[in-house]
Amino acid sequence: MINFEGVNIEREQQLLLRDVTLHIDKGEFVYLIGQVGSGKSSLLKTIYAELPITEGEATVFEYDLKTIRRRQIPYLRRRLGIIFQDFQLLVDRTVQQNLEFVLKATGWSNKEEMEDRIKQVLHLVGMENKGYRMPNTLSGGEQQRMVIARALLNDPAVILADEPTGNLDPATSSNIVKLLYDICKERHTTVLMSTHNLQLLNRFPGRVLKIENGKVTEVSTVESEHQAPETVIAEAQSATTSEAGEEIQNGSTAGSDDSNSASDHCLQSDSQPEGQSRNEESGQIPSESGLQ
């Protein structure tokens, strides 16, 4: 589903990641770890075509990220569920209205179908009775569940979660990751999640990719909570305690990957190609602020 071979990733003419090679298949749960500014968000942005590929080969689904056309990008993103740490909610609209906005932006028009889908995703995230609430009346955990519901609206094949627990307390963080983990295992949805919370690796086993010194390497794969996860955690901790690489020294601002700029493009509502149904290309549940 996601295939990178020898990819270089740049931002503002700074080389952030070099020679990235990775392969992520359907139904995998994958952690992405590394220091702040190491390029985790840049890697995620490359997957949804926010940052261009400067060298190497990269495909997501059938899209070639090196040659993808601008008009194709919204259709790629509709097959991805994107979750941001800072939620990116419309604060002047209810939960229901936030979700309706995204459905309309991604091609839905039948009111009854939209209401049914919203009920389904709110049920999946345990928010069945919160559709009338305004975002500012929800707890941090509830807001993140709402963001996950938004990411599920178009039944994405892949969920990209950029530090989804960064602003949450430990108990709430664990509940949010359990929700993503269950979605992965029960619905065979691929999840790629960046995180600094290495204890999650213990409770929710999966592959671990580490970014350090501008390189992406696989630390290990934990297949069960009984598989000596402390070894993997010890390896992973080296990514957050070692000296920053050249890409951080020379471009920490660029490498910090402010999520807001990414969300500006996640809801592009380009008109659909003639004769193409909504179900064929509306798999993306983007953030709302980028509808242009």
Give an account of the 3D structure.
There is one protein chain. With 292 residues, the protein is of the alpha/beta class. It has one domain (2-290): Rossmann fold, CATH 3.40.50. It has 11 helices and 10 strands. A 6-stranded mixed beta sheet has the order 6-7-8-3-9-10, with helices on both faces. Strands 2-1-4-5 form a 4-stranded antiparallel beta sheet. Helix 4 crosses helix 5 (140-152) and helix 5 (140-152) packs parallel to helix 6. The chain is globular. The two termini are 28 Å apart.
What proportion of the residues form beta strands (DSSP E)?
A: 15-25%
Task: Briefly note the CATH topology name.
Answer: Rossmann fold
Find the count of extended strands (DSSP E, 2+ residues). Answer: 10
Count of individual domains: 1
Per CATH, the superfamily is P-loop containing nucleotide triphosphate hydrolases
| Bulk shape | globular
> Strand arrangement, largest sheet?
6-7-8-3-9-10
Helix count, per DSSP?
11
Low-confidence stretches: 242-292
Helix content: 25-40%
What is the gyration radius calculated from CA atoms?
18 Å
Largest sheet: 6 strands, mixed
CATH architecture field: 3-Layer(aba) Sandwich
CATH classification, class level? Alpha Beta
Task: Give the H and E element order.
Answer: EEEHEEHEHHHEHEHEEHHHH
Average residue-wise pLDDT: 81
